[in-house]
Design a protein that fits this description.
Elements (H helix, E strand, L loop, with lengths): L1 H12 L7 E4 L6 E4 L5 E5 L4 E6 L4 E6 L12 E6 L6 E6 L4 E5 L8 E5 L6 E6 L6 E6 L3 E6 L5 E6 L5 E6 L6 E6 L3 E6 L8 E4 L5 E6 L6 E6 L3 E6 L6 E7 L4 E6 L6 E6 L6 E5 L8 E3 L6 E8 L2 E9 L3 E6 L6 H4 L4 E4 L5 E6 H4 L34 E6 L9 H9 L7 H14 L3 H14 L30 E2 L19 E3 L4 E3 L15 E2 L2 E2 L10 H10 L21 H9 L15 H8 L16 H13 L3 H11 L1 H4 L4 H17 L3 H10 L3 H4 L47 E3 L6 E3 H10 L15
Parallel strand pairs: 32-35
Antiparallel strand pairs: 1-28, 2-3, 3-4, 4-5, 6-7, 7-8, 8-9, 10-11, 11-12, 12-13, 14-15, 15-16, 16-17, 18-19, 19-20, 20-21, 22-23, 23-24, 24-25, 26-27, 27-28, 29-30, 30-31, 33-34, 35-36, 37-38
Helix pairs in contact: 5-6, 10-11, 11-13, 13-14
Family: Belongs to the WD repeat WDR24 family.
Catalytic activity: S-ubiquitinyl-[E2 ubiquitin-conjugating enzyme]-L-cysteine + [acceptor protein]-L-lysine = [E2 ubiquitin-conjugating enzyme]-L-cysteine + N(6)-ubiquitinyl-[acceptor protein]-L-lysine
GO molecular function: ubiquitin protein ligase activity; zinc ion binding
C-alpha cells in the first residue's frame, strides 16, 4: 500500500498539457492504452502495433512493435493494456487466441516476452491487476477467463462462466480480489480470484450482449455496463442484490465505457457501429449528452482518459485510421443546441406544450435560485466552473385536454366495425362504405368511395345505382359529357333550330335512353351558352335524363336510323326564297330577330332522326389503369393526413386494380400502422381480418407467429401427439361435449378447474340453469 500511495502522489503532482490534435495511422486501430505517466500511447490493431509519444503539438511515432519479415498472428491484436505499475510492461489479446506480453526494456528489436496459448478462440480482453505487477486476466470467445502469473509459463486459474463468450473483464479498483466479467447472453458475473470454481454473484444487466464494463475509480460499489440494447447502466454492487441506480439511453450499441477522472457522475462512451461520435454523459441527466466529440469519420474503437487524475484530455482511436487527443473545452455541448420548446398531440386529441419558463412566467427577470445561503458565511461557497455544469434551461409544461364527451376517436372505431372489405361485389362494397362514412359525418370520405365506384365499376354490370344517381336509371358511367344547345317544343310545334352560319359537324353519342352531345357550342348571335327549353317551361340538366323506358321503346319504333344521315335535297339556287311555311312560322313567333330571317327548319321526325343512334359510337368505359395515378395520389394524401384506415381499406377493396401501383414497403408501413391502431383500441377481430386480407407476406405472417396450441387429452391428461380427434394413448375422443356427447369440431370452451367442456352454445345454455359441471363431476364451473 505504501508503494501505491507513492505512485498516486507522483501522478497527482504531474501536470498534463497539450491541445486537440490527431495523427494518421497506417491501419485501423482496434484498441489503445496509455502509460502511467501519460506521455506515451500504444495503438494496436489487426495490422498495426505502435507506440506514440504525446508532445505539446503533435504525436510522434516512437516504436513499431511489428517486427520481422513475416509477422505472425500474435501481432494481430484485438485488445491492448499498458500496466499502470510497470512502465515497460504491455499485454495484448491476439485474434488467434494467444495472450502475449511485451517487455519494452529488452535491448533487441523484438520486444515479445511471454506467449500464452491456452484459449481456444479469440481473446477479447486483457486486464492487469491495478496493484499486483505479475497478475494478468484474460477473457475469451470460448467462454473462459484465465488468470496468469507472469513469473510462470502457464495460467494459475481458470474461470468458467458456464455461459457464452466473455466480452470484457475488469479488476475492481478498490476490492483486491474481485473482478467483473460481462457476457454475450446479457449477464454480468462477479468473481473472487481465490475461488475459481464458482462466481460470487450473477445478474442480468442487458437484453442482449454486454460489450463492456468499468468500475468507478472513486466509488467502490459502482459498476457501469454497456450493451447492444443501446443502454449504459450503473449498478450499485454494495447491496445484496445488484441495484440499477442510473440508466442512460444512447442511439447505438455501446462498445466502450470509461468513467471520467475526478468527476463522479461523468462517463464516456463510444458505439460499435453506425454512430462515430464519442459522448460524455452525466448519468443524472441521461437524455442528452453532456459533451460530444465529433472528429472521427468512422466507428470509434478505443477510448481512454490520458491521465487517471486529469479529466480534461481524452484519447481515441478509430477505424478511420486516426489517433486523436481531445481537449474537453473543445467538445460540442448538445444542450446548447437543444430546443426547450415542444408540441405534441395525444391519441385522443390532448395537446402538450412545453416552453421556456422565462417566456411563460411573469417574473422572467427573477433568478431561479438564490445566491448562497445566509446561514453560512458567503466565503464558504466555491463558485462552480460553468464548463463543468449543464446549462440551466428549464421548460414549463402545459397540457390542454379535450372534452371527454367529444369522443373524437369514435369515428375510427365505428368505421372499423362497420366497413365491409370483402364478401360482396365491388360496387356494393363501395356503396356500403360510402353510406357508413356519410352517417359518421365524413363527407369527403363518402365522396371518395362513390368516386371509386364510378371509376372502377363495369358499366355493363351496374345494377344498383347510388343515391346520387337515381335520376340516371341505367345510364352508363361516363367520364365526361356535355349537352349541346337543344330546343324542342311540346306537341306538333316542337322543333330543333340551328343557325344558318354553323357548318361544323356535331360529335354525337347516344345510349338507348339518353342523348349526349359532346361539344358545347353557343348559338350564333347569342352572348351566352344555349339554354334547354321545352315549350314554356325551363328544365335543369338532371331532368333531361329522366326519360322512362317505355317512352324510349315507343320512340325507337317511330324514329329509326335512316339510310342517309342527311336526306337528298334539290340543288340550292343562288338566291333562294324562304319556304312559305317558314315565313308563316316566323311571322307568328314573337321571338324572331332580324338576323334569323333565313334559317332551315326541320320537322320533328327529321330532326330526331339525325341524333337518334341505338348504339354508342365509342367505348363508354375507360380502363382501370387510367385512374391508377390519381388513386395512388389519393391514398398517399390520406396516409399523410394520418388516416391510414382509409388508405388500407381502399387498398383491400380495390385489390389488384391498384396494388401493383404502390411499392411493397409503403403498403407494409400502412398495414402495420393501421393494425397497431386497431390493436390499441382492442379491435382484435378487425385486426385479424385486415391481416388475412393483406397480400404482403410480412403482414400475413403476423397471425402465424406464436400460434402453437398444445392440446392434452381430457381423459388421460397426456399431450395429443396426432392431429386427429382420437387420443393415441387412451383411444378415446379428446374433445367431447359434456352436454351433447358429440365431438366438438368448432369453438370448444372448457373449465380450467375440471377440464370438462363442450360446444360454446351448449355450455352457455347449461349454465343458465345450473352452476355444476355438466359432466357430473360435481365441480362448480366458472367461465369468463
Amino acid at each position: 500500500m505504501e508503494k501505491m500511495s507513492r505512485v498516486t502522489t507522483a501522478l497527482s503532482s504531474s501536470t498534463v498539457t497539450g491541445r486537440t490534435m490527431f495523427c494518421h495511422l497506417d491501419a485501423p486501430a482496434n484498441a489503445i492504452s496509455v502509460c502511467r505517466d501519460a506521455t506515451q500511447v500504444v495503438v494496436a490493431g489487426r495490422n498495426i502495433f505502435k507506440i506514440y509519444t504525446l508532445e505539446e503539438e503533435q504525436f510522434v511515432e516512437k516504436l513499431n512493435l511489428r517486427v520481422g519479415r513475416k509477422p505472425s498472428l500474435n501481432f494481430s491484436c484485438a485488445d491492448v493494456m499498458w500496466h499502470q505499475m510497470e512502465e515497460n510492461l504491455l499485454a495484448t489479446a491476439a485474434t488467434n487466441g494467444a495472450v502475449v506480453t511485451w517487455n519494452l526494456g529488452k535491448p533487441s528489436r523484438n520486444k515479445q516476452d511471454q506467449l500464452f496459448t491456452e484459449h481456444k478462440r479469440t481473446v477479447n480482453k486483457v486486464c492487469f491487476h491495478p496493484t499486483e505487477v505479475y497478475m494478468l486476466l484474460s477473457g475469451s470467445q470460448d467462454g473462459f477467463m484465465k488468470c496468469f502469473d507472469l513469473r510462470k509459463k502457464e495460467s494459475v486459474s481458470t474461470f468458467s462462466g458456464q455461459s457464452e463468450s466473455v466480452r470484457d473483464v475488469q479488476f475492481s479498483m478498490k476490492d483486491y480480489f474481485t473482478f467483473a466479467a460481462s457476457f454475450e447472453n446479457g449477464n454480468v458475473q462477479l468473481w473472487d480470484i481465490r475461488r475459481p470454481d464458482r462466481y460470487e454473484r450473477m445478474f442480468t444487466a442487458h437484453t442482449g450482449p454486454v460489450f463492456c464494463c468499468d468500475w468507478h475509480p472513486d466509488d467502490r460499489g459502482w459498476l457501469a455496463t454497456g450493451g447492444r440494447d443501446k443502454m449504459v447502466k450503473v449498478w450499485d454492487m454494495t447491496t445484496n442484490r445488484a441495484k440499477e441506480v442510473y440508466c442512460v439511453q444512447t442511439i447505438a450499441s455501446v462498445a466502450r465505457v470509461k468513467w471520467r477522472p475526478e468527476r463522479k457522475f461523468h462517463l464516456a462512451t463510444c458505439s460499435m457501429m453506425v454512430d462515430h461520435n464519442i459522448y460524455v454523459w452525466d448519468v443524472r441527466r441521461p437524455f442528452i449528452p453532456f459533451a460530444t466529440f465529433e472528429e472521427h469519420k468512422d466507428v470509434t474503437t478505443g477510448i481512454v482518459w490520458r491521465h487517471q487524475h486529469d479529466p480534461h484530455f481524452l484519447l481515441s482511436g478509430s477505424k478511420d485510421s486516426t489517433l486523436y487527443q481531445h481537449m474537453f473545452k473543445d467538445a460540442t455541448r448538445p444542450v446548447d443546441k437543444a430546443n426547450p420548446e415542444g408540441l405534441c398531440f395525444g391519441l385522443f386529441g390532448d395537446l402538450a406544450f412545453a416552453a421556456k419558463e422565462s417566456l411563460i412566467s411573469s417574473d422572467a427577470n427573477k433568478k431561479p435560485y438564490p445566491v448562497g445561503d445566509r446561514r453560512y458565511p458567503i466565503f464558504f461557497f466555491k463558485k462552480p466552473d460553468p464548463t463543468e455544469q449543464f446549462a440551466h434551461v428549464s421548460s414549463a409544461l402545459s397540457v390542454f385536454e379535450t372534452d371527454l364527451d367529444s369522443n373524437r376517436m369514435d369515428w375510427f372505431v365505428k368505421t372499423a366495425q362497420l366497413y365491409l372489405l370483402s364478401g360482396k361485389p365491388f360496387a356494393e362494397l363501395c356503396d356500403h362504405n360510402a353510406k357508413v362514412a356519410r352517417e359518421l359525418k365524413r363527407p369527403q370520405v363518402s365522396t371518395t368511395w362513390s368516386m371509386l365506384r364510378i371509376m372502377f365499376s363495369d358499366p355493363a354490370n351496374l345494377s344498383t345505382p347510388g343515391p346520387n344517381l337515381s335520376k340516371l336509371g341505367t345510364l352508363p358511367l361516363m367520364n365526361s359529357f356535355s349537352m349541346k344547345e337543344m330546343v324542342s317544343g311540346v306537341g306538333t310545334e316542337s322543333r330543333l333550330e340551328r343557325s344558318k352560319g354553323e357548318s361544323r359537324q356535331d360529335n354525337i353519342h347516344l345510349d338507348h335512353s339518353f342523348i349526349f352531345l359532346s361539344e358545347n357550342e353557343e348559338t350564333e348571335g347569342s352572348e351566352g351558352q344555349a339554354e334547354y327549353m321545352f315549350g314554356d317551361a325551363e328544365l335543369d340538366d338532371d331532368d333531361l335524363y329522366s326519360m322512362e323506358q317505355e317512352n324510349q321503346a315507343a320512340e325507337e319504333q317511330e324514329y329509326t336510323l335512316p339510310q342517309e344521315a342527311f336526306q337528298l335535297r334539290h340543288e340550292i339556287m343562288d338566291n333562294p326564297s324562304a319556304p312559305e311555311h317558314l315565313q308563316q312560322d316566323k311571322a307568328d313567333s314573337p321571338h324572331v330577330s332580324g338576323n334569323e330571317a333565313e334559317v332551315t327548319c326541320l320537322t320533328p321526325i327529321e330532326s330526331f332522326s339525325l341524333i337518334s343512334i341505338s348504339q354508342p359510337l365509342f367505348s363508354p368505359h375507360l380502363p382501370a389503369s387510367f385512374f391508377c395515378p390519381i388513386v395512388r395520389e389519393m391514398l398517399s394524401y390520406y396516409a399523410e393526413q394520418g388516416d391510414v384506415q382509409m388508405a388500407v381499406s381502399v387498398l383491400i377493396v380495390l385489390g389488384d386494380r391498384i396494388r401493383k401501383e404502390i411499392d411493397d414497403l409503403t403498403q407494409e408501413h400502412w398495414y402495420m400502422s393501421y393494425i397497431d391502431l386497431l390493436q390499441r383500441f382492442e379491435l382484435w377481430n378487425v385486426s385479424n381480418e385486415v391481416i388475412k386480407l393483406s397480400t404482403c407476406s410480412a403482414i400475413t405472417g403476423l397471425n402465424q407467429t406464436s400460434t402453437t396450441l398444445h392440446v392434452n387429452c381430457s381423459n388421460c391428461k397426456r399431450p395429443m401427439s396426432n392431429k386427429g380427434w382420437i387420443c393415441d394413448r387412451c383411444h378415446q375422443c379428446a374433445s367431447v361435449c359434456a352436454v351433447c356427447h358429440h365431438v366438438v369440431k368448432g369453438l370448444f370452451v372448457w373449465c380450467q378447474g375440471c377440464s370438462h367442456g363442450g360446444h360454446l352454445e351448449h355450455i352457455m345454455n347449461w349454465l343458465k340453469s345450473s352452476a355444476h359441471c355438466p359432466a357430473g363431476c360435481g365441480h362448480l364451473c366458472e367461465y369468463t
